[in-house]
Amino acid sequence: MGSVVRALSALAVIFGAALSALWAWTIGTFAPLAAVTALMMGGTGHPLLHPDTDEFVTEYLGAMGDNYVGPAVTRWSTPEDPHTLTGRVAVYSPEHFWPANGNQTFDDSVADGLTNLNSCIARTRCVHNSAVGDAPPADGMFVVFGYSQSARIATLAKRDLIAHYQPLDWAGAPQVAFVLIGNPGRPNGGVLQRFRGLYNPILGVTFDGATPTDSTNSAGEQQLLTIDIAKQYDPAADFPLYPLNLLATANALAGFFTEHDSYLESLDDPSVIDQGIHGDTHYYLIPTERLPILKLFNGIVPSPILTALDAPLRAIVELGYDRTLSPGTPARARLLRIPSVKDAVTVATAVPTGLDDGLAEAADGPMFRPLRTTPADGPFGVQRQAQSAREDADVAAEPQVVAEPEPPSEEPVSEKPQRRKLEKLEPRRLGKILRGELKAAKEEAAKEGTAAKEEAAAGKAAKEAPKEDASATETAATEPEAKDFGARSRGNRNWAHRNRGDDQPRRAERSLAS
């Protein structure tokens, strides 16, 4: 009996040791999730305390946390350093903007909000809505969420952290990250940066520049990770670079009513455009399907008419921006952009495109496009589409694409029509398509096709040179040219569209073939 007990005891010890080893291996392999608490502030008119109701605050914390803060935390997580959003604190900030909201000017309201936010980050005293959400924890990582005016508060808090801790190489700094939407301090697009250096004494607004993007330590590592989301044509975060483009400015002002208060999309929405990383900040743009200046007429003017107007008006509005600049590059407002020939081609291309868009919507058939235009691919209208077509025409017209003519005695006449079509017909027809002369292009194609057939027939009767060897030689000479044309036609991708496919060259080739 004693031997049985000793055997069982030995097995128990061995089993316990195995479990301990397995637990130690599990802890070493899978790092525990780090708790992240969101310090969430409201926008102008919403202090997240009275007069906001508890129902509103609950919905606000849920929507903004699920749509923006949660996805941001997921993006920052790594297998070695995983994070999860565990708490949401409704942080108080006055959110006044006299005379529209409250009795404080914009600057005074921001100053009071900054004082409270800095206290929350330092874990000293944090005024928050204790009836809704969570209380600030004693430890763990914070994510500061700012919307519109509170994004300005978050910007100033980020500046304070950089000014205090960067000279100390971030020794003793709190773990903080930022998520900003509708940020007036967005480096390229934020209205406070567009007019940096100005001051409005009536409203008490200081245009003090951009949200900082450099929070590096001595090892070159960014410490204050930030995600900045803007909605296209929101005047707070996507104000025109050329405000003397009056249509672009009027459209942005309309966007204050249609876009600034409607950040309803999720950061995980596939339509959201990833604009890249600049310093410690990752930028995203939420596209707008219809211009705000046209949205004002929704329900008044028939939708197909508004759709037909969108493409040409958007082409003009986009002339007030420079989408090739990174959103992380600080850019002040500039004088009126001088239109170029390319701009004129863009607007001219947008007119028939808009007509086809409106007719397709009216007919409830996306493929119903009587003018045979291609729908604009992307939120910036036909600007990039027309640019791609112009590049195709330039590539086709370059002399190195066209092979040196061979002596007539060595070239099989049966191949001449094929070479004429590749070398001469395509560039000319493509140019006409860009000018909207579709009918003229077809007639020209028919004439040249008839002439080519007659020339081929006459040449074939006059010559008796072997065809198979020469045809093989000619095909070998022609195929590289065609491949080169196709490869060169697909160049030059706009950085803001790098995640979107652009099959415009292939569409142009199909139009030519028809």
List keywords for this structure.
14 helices; Rossmann fold; disordered C terminus; 8-stranded mixed sheet; 514 residues; two-stranded antiparallel sheet; 10 strands; elongated; 11% strand; alpha/beta
SSE layout:
Layout: H1 2-29, E1 34-40, H2 54-76, E2 83-91, H3 106-122, E3 128-133, E4 141-147, H4 149-165, E5 176-181, H5 191-194, E6 199-200, E7 205-206, E8 226-231, H6 246-258, E9 273-278, E10 281-286, H7 292-295, H8 303-318, H9 341-363, H10 383-397, H11 416-434, H12 438-462, H13 468-489, H14 504-513
Parallel strand pairs: 1-2, 1-4, 4-5, 5-8, 8-10
Antiparallel strand pairs: 2-3, 6-7, 9-10
Helix pairs in contact: 3-4, 6-8, 8-9, 9-10, 10-11, 11-12
Please state the average pLDDT score: 79
Into how many domains do the coordinates divide?
2
Widest beta sheet: strand line-up: 3-2-1-4-5-8-10-9
DSSP, total strands = 10
The run of helices and strands is: HEHEHEEHEHEEEHEEHHHHHHHH
**Range of helix content:** 40-55%
Low-confidence stretches: 21-31, 385-435, 464-514
Our Rg estimate from Cα atoms comes to 31 Å
Biggest sheet features: 8 strands, mixed
The proportion of residues in beta strands is 5-15%
Helices, by number, come to 14
Q: Judging by the overall fold, what is the CATH architecture of the largest domain?
A: 3-Layer(aba) Sandwich
| CATH fold group of the largest domain | Rossmann fold
CATH class of the largest domain: Alpha Beta
Structural class: alpha/beta
Which term fits the overall shape?
A: elongated
Distance between the termini: 96 Å
Organism: Mycolicibacterium chitae
Pfam families: PE-PPE
Protein name: PE-PPE-like protein
InterPro entries: AB_hydrolase_fold, PE-PPE_C
